[in-house]
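Narrative of activities, Objective 1.

The group set out to show that a structural description can be obtained from nothing but a protein's sequence at a throughput compatible with the screening campaign. Below is one input-output pair from the validation batch, recorded exactly as produced.
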Amino acid sequence: MSIELLTKVEKAEAEAEEIRAAAAREARDMLKGAEEAVLAESRAASLAHRELVTQALEQAKLDVEQEIQRTEKQQTSERAAQREQAMARIDRAAAIIFERVVNDGHR
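Output recorded for this entry:
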């Protein structure tokens, strides 16, 4: 009987070892699956973040280009107004210069 009992104990120990090994494999597989899922989620989040940053940069670029165009238009109109003012005063400036040259030309 003792041999039979010893055999049953050894068989139970072997089954327990198989169960433990199977549980360890299953745990490793689950961990590996979880790590892969986390990595995939991280990549997806990274791509989404990159897309958002790209969109924000594109919008900022468009805003700056529009501001440059507004500034250029404003500066162009200001220069045109200054040129018109200068052209309006050119006859008077020529007359003043002529008077000075004629009146003070002997010096």
